């Protein structure tokens, strides 16, 4: 996860922020001469808020599917009868990354 924030304090205590958020991960089973393949999603936004207000960044969605095979060694490979000794599964994981930011202006005495 990468989070880059550029902020400016405006008149009246408002805060202007440019926020860049990136989520990347290595794709399973991807290997080649160029190196691993990355799955990357990113957003960039600009927002003006008052001091102490909360900003919610969302929208980085990710769907992952995983297939699996389980079975009794040897018996699960028998043609036709092997289905009695094995099982197949498919798993879906859905992720929605949300980031909460609360800018605070620190004032010196």
UniProtKB/TrEMBL annotation:
GO terms for biological process: protein secretion. The keyword Phosphoprotein does not apply. GO terms for cellular component: membrane. InterPro entries: Bact_Secretion_Sys_Channel, T2SS/T3SS_dom. The lineage of its organism: Eukaryota, Cryptophyceae, Cryptomonadales, Hemiselmidaceae, Hemiselmis. This is Type II/III secretion system secretin-like domain-containing protein. Keywords: Membrane, Signal. It is found in: Membrane. Residues 1-107 form the Type II/III secretion system secretin-like domain.
């Amino acid at each position: 996860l990468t989070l880059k924030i550029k902020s400016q304090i405006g008149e009246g205590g408002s805060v202007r922020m440019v926020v860049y958020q990136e989520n990347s991960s290595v794709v399973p089973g991807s290997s080649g001469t160029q190196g691993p393949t990355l799955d990357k999603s990113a957003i960039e936004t600009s927002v003006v808020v008052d001091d102490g207000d909360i900003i919610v960044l969302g929208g980085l969605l990710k769907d992952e599917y995983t297939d699996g095979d389980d079975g009794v060694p040897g018996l699960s490979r028998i043609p036709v009868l092997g289905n009695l000794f094995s099982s197949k599964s498919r798993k879906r994981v859905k992720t929605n990354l949300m980031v909460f930011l609360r800018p605070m202006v620190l004032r010196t005495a």
